[in-house]
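> example.struct
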């Protein structure tokens, strides 16, 4: 009789510990804990491809030095870059992604830097079929330049195309 009570007490303690572990560890661990003492179920738990995505691979072997966050920030190292992509972050090839997108949407060519050391970016050859369109697009690019930390911008209209330079 003493042995039976001890067995029941052991079984109760084991069940309590298993339930406590299941509650703290979550559903995946709970499923495994319910199979303790016997073979685990054959089903596997899949997880998203973290750290091995093509974006994360772009960060490896020095690649982190040539990519930016979606807001244009630089990375301090490979680990920061791969962690960013593992959390769903999007990489871009420009420190001024919104300005680049705007320039390209106008049919221009976007270049980081320029002929002068103080140049942040150039938007060359954007569509400007008339003066009103040129003015509107130049104003929008000027707003982006200010957002990017530029101190000023220069616009020119040549042969029906706009040319903008954002500088410090």
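> example.seq
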């Amino acid at each position: 009789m003493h042995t039976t009570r001890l067995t029941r007490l052991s079984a109760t303690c084991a069940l309590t510990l298993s339930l406590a572990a299941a509650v703290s560890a979550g559903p995946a661990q709970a499923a495994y804990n319910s199979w303790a003492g016997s073979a685990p179920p054959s089903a596997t738990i899949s997880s998203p491809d973290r750290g091995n995505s093509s974006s994360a691979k772009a960060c490896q072997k020095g690649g982190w030095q040539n990519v930016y966050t979606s807001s244009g920030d630089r990375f301090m190292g490979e680990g920061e870059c791969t962690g960013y992509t593992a959390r769903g972050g999007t990489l871009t090839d420009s420190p001024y992604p919104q300005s680049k997108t705007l320039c390209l949407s106008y049919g221009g060519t976007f270049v980081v830097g320029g002929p002068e050391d103080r140049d942040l970016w150039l938007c060359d050859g954007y569509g400007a079929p008339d003066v009103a369109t040129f003015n509107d697009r130049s104003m929008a690019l000027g707003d982006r330049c200010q957002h990017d930390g530029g101190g000023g911008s220069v616009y020119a209209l040549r042969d029906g195309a706009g040319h903008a330079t954002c500088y410090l």
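> remarks
The chain is about 45% helix and 15% strand.
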